[in-house]
Design a protein that fits this description.
The structure is a homodimer.
Chain A lengths: L1 E5 L5 H11 L5 E5 L12 E4 L8 H11 L2 E6 L2 H9 L1 H6 L3 E2 L4 H7 L2 H10 L7 E2 L2 H9 L7 E5 L9 E3 L2 H10 L3 E5 L4 E9 L6 E13 L2 E8 L2 H14 L3 E10 L2 E8 L6 H6 L4 H9 L16 E10 L1
Parallel strand pairs in A: 1-2, 1-4, 2-3, 4-5
Antiparallel strand pairs in A: 6-9, 7-8, 7-9, 10-11, 10-13, 11-12, 12-15, 13-14
């Protein structure tokens, strides 16, 4: 059983975990458009492919899937996840299962404003968000929201062009400098991350690992500590079932005064997933079990509390 | 021969390299003020110590040096390097050699504006810099400098509060928001990093490894490629001898239209040092040789060109 990891970048740990899990039973293939993607060199075999926006991109990936008898494929970067979801049937036609949620759902994850609206519509608590700055100014006047607030791109990642601002002047500047910006309430609380696996056969959430983010760096969790909270598990379970996610997803949640607010969803392995894996929440194993036609039992909350994770730099030399 | 690495943070590779080099001949001790410093867990023995600004800090470190017969000590964070340089004699009095340059030199490195002035005074090409925004505006009017420019803290690190700006309005805002800011010319060229070792007995630069920075992330080199250029080696050699550095330093250099401009000096192991080490430039070995009373031969430029380095995240769990 071979697995193909697309746009592997520097996600060496994900490649390593699949290699370990497939040991003897299959190979891990990886792609990237750059030879400077270190995770390539941890795969059993790798391919340098065109950029995902190249016209022949999907056909190249499909031919790798056919040629190397790839059982399942997934991507580690956001724009490609939409692409995979869009071309799902073509992959299924060559016998490869793309591990991805539905296209509309995936697109919603990449639009922070759409996400807030969907959450609201379904009765989940959300973070106050504005795409029209005038509406925000009016709410400031009405005392409904206060500075500081965040100004960020509606479709952004890795904390690029995000700033915490305290004045009209800064908001005007940010909206002038960048297109498609939104204003979002500053959540003065604790931030959590959840690594979730929704069984692709039963559609049931079968793994939820939650951690408090202790230190962030460049928009990524640098240090975290595992936590267990039944209220949080229930919220996540309800949310992913309502939304209809499938496969592995990563959710950002804020806790302010005992209330949880879902902030963002990344419909892929999150950058902090190694914390979950090393704490015993083995999603690669669950994926492989699904690929063998078996349903996973729920292991929600089956890990120890208080496990601390710290990242450091390892290097590859070529 | 025991070595003590202070404020080891997430610099696991440095701890690992010293452990490998000392194998059997001595132990690596490490300290940090946080139990969430992953490099602690790679040392032979570690200590959680107060923050470097605590009144009893130096006496605690000195007592570790005495108790564990520490031959040499160095730090991996900037403010502590000044502290070590200041208290050099107290360490020497307990038989421990602090691997650090002179206090005034170290302080100069942490003041980007002072650095520019010293470079200029000694005839090295520098990056146009202003601490008075009015002088900058005047030079813009005179056509001596153009937008974009960088606004950054005079004493900053890790790209915190740095922004590339294109208008008076943004400069005014940055100066209003933060104290002690400076304006610096945008160098439209290639950025290099140099890992240098100046023999602590002979005071001669004995190792220079230079790399082109290919991708940056959060102010750190994420991907780089080794380069060799006699002009660059000569510039670095002249500069470190003129300035009088000792031990390991990391230099940032820009190349614009065939001219090299020294931008910054970190008087410690740089975040990209693993590239040099894995390319055969073994500074820990040179330090140990010095500690054994022997002078190192020059290995300047003794490495292959075109070696590529890529970082990825490894994790520690406790």
């Amino acid at each position: 059983m071979n697995v193909l990891i697309l746009s592997c970048g520097s996600r060496n740990k994900i490649v390593q975990y699949f290699k370990k899990e497939l040991n003897g039973k299959g190979k891990v293939f990886a792609t990237d458009c750059s030879i400077l993607a270190p995770a390539l060199y941890d795969a059993d075999q790798f391919f340098i492919v065109p950029r995902i926006d190249a016209p022949n991109y999907i056909s190249e990936i499909l031919s790798i899937c056919k040629k190397f008898n790839i059982k399942a494929v997934f991507s580690l970067i956001d724009p490609e996840i939409s692409l995979l979801a869009k071309h799902k049937d073509e992959f299924l036609a060559v016998g490869t299962i793309p591990i991805v949620s539905e296209y509309e759902l995936v697109e919603m994850c990449f639009d922070k404003y759409a996400m807030v609206q969907i959450l609201e519509k379904n009765g989940f608590k959300t973070i106050k968000s504005y795409i029209k700055k005038e509406e925000f100014y009016r709410d400031v006047d009405l005392g409904k929201i206060n500075y500081p607030v965040f100004v960020k791109p509606i479709k952004g990642s890795a904390s690029i062009n995000i700033s915490k601002v305290t004045s009209v002047e800064e908001i005007e500047l940010a909206f002038k400098k960048h297109d498609q910006m939104m204003i979002q309430e500053f959540m003065d609380g604790v931030e959590y991350g959840a690594d979730v696996y929704i069984d692709i056969i039963s559609s049931e959430p079968v793994a939820i690992f939650t951690k408090e983010k202790v230190v962030m760096r460049a928009g990524e969790t640098d240090k975290s500590i595992s936590v267990k909270d039944e209220t949080l598990f229930k919220l996540i379970n309800d949310f992913v079932k309502t939304a209809g996610f499938k496969g592995m997803i990563d959710i950002d949640i804020f806790k302010v005064k005992d209330n949880y607010f879902i902030s963002e969803v990344n419909p892929r392995f999150g950058g902090g997933y190694p914390h979950a894996y090393e704490s015993g929440v083995n999603i690669p194993k669950m994926i492989i079990k699904n690929l063998q036609g078996e349903i996973n039992e729920s292991v929600i909350g089956q890990y120890a509390e208080g496990i601390r994770m710290m990242k450091y730099n390892e290097i590859k030399i070529i």
